[in-house]
Amino acid sequence: MFYELDKLESQLKCPKCLLKYVSPRILPCGKSLCQNCIDQLCNYNLLNFIKCPICCKSHAVPDEGFIINEFIVKTLDIKPEKVYRCASYEQFDTLLNEIESDLIEIETRLNYPENKIRDYCDKIRNQIDLNTEKLIEKINNHREQLLNELSIYEQNCIENLMRIERKDLYEKILNENSQKIKSYYNYLNQSRINEDQVKQMIEEAKIQEYKLKNNIKILNSKLFGKNLIHFEESTKILDSNILGKITYDDLNFTSDLTDIEKVLNCKIEKTITYNDKIIDYALPIQDIFLLVVGPSLKMVDDTGNDILDIRFDSTPLHVSHNQIDTILVQHRRCLWRNDRKEISQAYTLSTYDFNLNIKNEIVIDSKIINCITNEHSVFIQMDKTNLINVYNWNLEKLLTIGQTLYADRPYFCKDYTIEMVKGDRVYMRKTMPDEEGDYWVRIMSLSSGDLLHEYYLDCRHEFFFVDGLMRSIVIDPVFSILRIYDRPNLKSNQADLLFEKSLDLNNCNGFQMTSDGKFFFIKEKKFVQYYKFSA
Fold it and tell me: Which residues form a coiled coil (predicted)?
């Protein structure tokens, strides 16, 4: 903890005269005063006691006087020296304060867990109540505005009523027409009715109705003025989130954190060598690897021996699995002319069980830019359309982002490639750097389509991952460097570099990271390496 000089000097001033202590004396109540201030108090009371100006307690003055405060006297003799701080002092001071705050929070959660939960929920509850009060206030203000407008209109109409001329004329019209209607009903109730006479009465009634409606309009204009008021209900559907909404940050990332200390000391644990050219692979299912070798998908044990395989008409472009029961394979399907010129191409998505038995298959006519999966869904980014098709693991299409979902937000994936989907967050990387050479990352909300954040990484990278603390892990295979960046700064739009480490990434063709933070590489298209992290 660093103490400021002005705080120390404030403790060396007499609380009565507010000047630096001169011969400071300790009173029985524990307070300290200058000897001059004590003498003034004695002269004021003209008695052998004084009243402490701080706590108002009365003290008898000893014949030899009050005891000198030796601590204050010695502190006054200390001459402060100017300390020259390095440029990193403020940064270090801030960091220490944050660490101290974290320690206090951990201690509070350990010693008073129930109070911490209640305090946190009370804070959210107060926010909800505050938003409710604000909304009620707005509604009441609008209600008063409408009622005032209605009252003014009502008063004007009553005044118009008092000014209507020739009321007797309208009363005469009312009586005559009432008698006419009564005669019509009497005739219709007779046992014998002449059809021609009824037709004549219908024509008379039509003329009568026209005259009455015209008189109603004239009367309305005299009563209500130029405009007849109506209340039109709002057509806007009340948003279910009008007060706000409860959102949940995913805390289920205990197995999805990158341990920086272990990464610093990482070393190659195992190399799985395969005799044929490895094009792609999926993260291991227990100790079994999924390798794309030529046009085949192979299941290989951790010594490189084949277990199962399946052959396709063309080379698979992507393979992944949901860690439960399904493997996804993406490959291209082409149609050729007799002269072997390609006339069309399509992409096939196939799912298999862990014994490589086919489960489902669909054909996509458009070119696929990228295929991303998580435990629930498959995300297919289409070329030249800014669309992302979302499927479940049964390959049933759920929706299209940019068409059935967020069609009004063309920026969702324009010039960006989808890289990861973690919970409600979609991470996308800009395909090209900006003028300063920075690579931008965009975070979108899958549920709302809102742009949550944008930040840039000041390095070239081809492989990009995000761990459970929103730290960016990037691989630069050209310079064989692994970098880990802190979670993005919301103010500066920059993610600070936590550390970088040189790895043996020469001729690296692929990179993936497991949920527990292990790194897997394809090297020289011949073997798979993965790094073991040791503390």
Answer: 188-222
Q: What pTM value is reported for the model?
A: 0.51
Q: What residues contact residue 69 under an 8 Å CB cut-off, 6+ apart? A: 21, 24, 25, 26, 32
Q: Looking at residues 263-283, what average pLDDT do you find?
A: 68
Residue type, 134: K
Q: In what order do the strands lie in the sheet with 32-34?
A: 32-34, 24-26, 67-68
CATH number at residue 487: 2.120.10.30
Listed residue (7, 6, 3, 25) closest to 16, CA to CA = 25
In terms of DSSP bridges, do strands 32-34 and 497-502 run parallel, antiparallel, or are they unpaired?
unpaired
Query: Considering the domain boundaries, does residue 229 fall inside one?
Result: no
CATH number at residue 57: 3.30.40.10
pLDDT tens for 285-305 read 777 778 787 788 888 877 778
Domain boundaries, position 29: 5-83
Residue 23 in contact with residue 38, Cβ under 8 Å? no
* 19, 37 Cβ separation under 8 angstroms: no
Burial grade of 315 (CB within 10 A; 0-12, 13-18, 19 or more) = middle
| 348-371 residue pLDDT tens | 889 998 888 999 998 888 788 888
Within 10 angstroms of residue 214's Cβ, the number of other Cβ atoms is 10
Residue finishing a domain among 49, 68, 83:
83
Domain boundary pick from 83, 114, 130 = 83
Instruction: Decide if 267 is inside a domain.
Output: yes
Distance, in Å, from the CA atom of 504 to the CA atom of 125, rounded to the nearest integer, reads 53
| Lookup result for tokens 């800014």 | 386
Structure tokens at 212: 């009455």
Report if residue 145 sits inside a domain.
no
Residue 477 within any structural domain of the chain: yes
